[in-house]
From TrEMBL:
Residues 41-60 are annotated as: Disordered. Keywords: Repeat, TPR repeat. Residues 47-60 have a biased composition (Low complexity). TPR repeats lie at residues 162-195. Pfam families: TPR_16. PROSITE patterns: TPR. This is Tetratricopeptide repeat protein. SUPFAM superfamilies: TPR-like (SSF48452). InterPro entries: TPR-like_helical_dom_sf (IPR011990), TPR_rpt (IPR019734), Ycf3 (IPR050498). It comes from the Bacteria.
Length: 455
């Protein structure tokens, strides 16, 4: 067990916290791996089971997809023989949600809803497995208020389950209820120090701009990891932390190390591609992005590939990727997923500002998280409403998160309002955090600074 450590908290608060939904996914866990069903029950712990406390996204790493598929097959077979087994139905629902994430196939969400609903019909009182499944499902669909309701119900039944505290923290985070999220993560760490809780702890520090503490906790998550899949998960997020703070060489080192243990991981290929592009190795970056998208057509990967192609003047190829992105987004909406920040930023940058604004307004109602405030600000800017945009942009940076894109957006909004000194400050900050934060927008930040200097 990882020993308890007390982290330095802003304004004197001492907490032990780790990564959550914005960076690590939204509370997607396998029931059998997390103690949500008794050991020995159908599909429970066995040679192919995930490690206890498996964090969101773990099943994407090498080898673990087979375990998930095997768990689903075993549960389906068991339920054909005993269709009223409420815990098994709940665990199957959780597995379907995780399968949707691992394969980027949202058609699993209606399947998950059906079996979770059946599970709750069988046992609606003590069935925290199905309650956790509904929380994970609603979070995956970006219905965070409903996800919080289900999380609270599950925690009320089983308050000492560390995983449930993590799911609760995820919902609080996406709803912008940060102190409550931090408290839930603290409880998770107290209950079960380890890779999942330390990963959540890392993100709470990242949200508040303490990247040293974030990296320290994620390194501890890596040290505590007991499987290649766990280590790949931690390596990816260490790579992301390094890249987001302007250290592409360290980002590349972590991505390479992860890929040596889990070759072909789409997540690590995407992480390596970003680092390669920042270091000027665009051929390698394009190859890795292409491989990642072929394995897992995650919309964010597709968009990153398109923008890299656009930055290289390959506009026709970029537009093909943007069409794929639109198709993926439609697939998600057709299966009940509410679009928010990614769709908003895409429409503001590459599509229809009016649509961007509509998506942002809806997104902010369901997900008043930092990223959504930033996306709403950019949509308002694209629509010429810069005074309102500045207010939203300041909300995005209110916790102190070091995010180059947030500061770039705020700098461009300040520039449009004629606030030259503020614009220079924000644009300088964006490039100081990460000079290669975007192949499209980083050059525009330099150009804007040059114009402000000339003026």
């Amino acid at each position: 067990m990882t020993p308890r450590a007390t982290l330095r908290a802003p304004r004197g608060r001492q907490l032990l916290l780790a990564s959550t939904a914005g960076a690590l996914g939204v509370g997607l866990f396998l029931a059998g791996a997390l103690g949500l069903a008794p050991p020995g029950s159908p599909g429970g712990a066995g040679p192919n089971a995930a490690p206890a406390g498996a964090p969101a996204g773990l099943r994407e790493a090498g080898g673990s997809a087979d375990a998930l598929a095997a768990d689903i097959t075993g549960l389906q077979q068991h339920l054909r023989e005993d269709p009223t087994d409420a815990p098994a139905l709940g665990r199957l629902g959780l597995d379907y949600v995780q399968q949707a994430k691992a394969t980027v196939d949202p058609t699993y969400y209606p399947k998950a809803e059906a079996v979770l609903t059946q599970s709750l019909k069988t046992d609606a009182t003590e069935n925290f497995t199905a309650m956790a499944g509904m929380a994970a499902l609603e979070a995956a669909r970006h219905n965070f208020a409903t996800a919080l309701d289900w999380s609270e119900k599950a925690v009320a039944v089983n308050p000492d389950n560390a995983t449930l505290q993590g799911i609760l923290a995820d919902a609080y985070t996406q709803l912008g209820r940060y102190p409550e999220s931090f408290d839930a993560v603290q409880r998770m760490v107290d209950l079960q120090p380890g890779t999942p809780s330390l990963a959540r702890a890392s993100y709470t520090w990242e949200l508040r701009g303490d990247t040293a503490a974030a990296a320290e906790d994620m390194q501890r998550a890596l040290n505590d990891a007991g499987t290649p899949a766990d280590r790949a998960f931690a390596r990816y997020h260490l790579s992301q932390l390094a890249f987001d703070n302007g250290d592409a060489k360290t980002a590349l080192t972590h991505a390479d190390a992860g890929l040596r243990e889990t070759p072909g991981s789409a997540e690590l290929l995407e992480g390596r591609a970003k680092a390669e592009a920042a270091l000027g190795n665009t051929d390698a970056a394009l190859a890795d992005y292409t491989s990642a998208v072929a394995k897992v057509p995650q919309p964010s990967y597709v968009l990153e590939l398109g923008e890299l192609l656009q930055s290289l003047g390959r506009t026709k190829d970029a537009e093909q990727q943007y069409q794929v992105f639109r198709g993926e987004e439609k697939l998600f909406t057709d299966n009940g997923v509410a679009l928010d920040s990614d769709g908003t930023l895409f429409e503001a940058d590459h599509g229809d500002p009016a649509k961007a604004l509509a998506l942002a307004e809806q997104g902010l109602r369901t997900r008043p998280f930092l990223e959504m405030h930033d996306a709403y600000a950019w949509a308002l800017h694209a629509s010429g409403r810069d005074t309102e945009a500045l207010e939203q942009s300041r909300q995005a940076t209110a916790l102190g998160m070091r995010n180059a894109l947030f500061h770039y957006h705020q700098g461009m909004i300040e520039k449009s309002l004629g606030h030259r000194d503020a614009a220079r400050t924000e644009l300088d900050q964006a490039l100081a955090i990460n000079e290669h934060f975007s192949p499209i927008h980083a050059p525009l930040a330099h150009a804007a600074l040059a114009q402000l200097g000339a003026d």
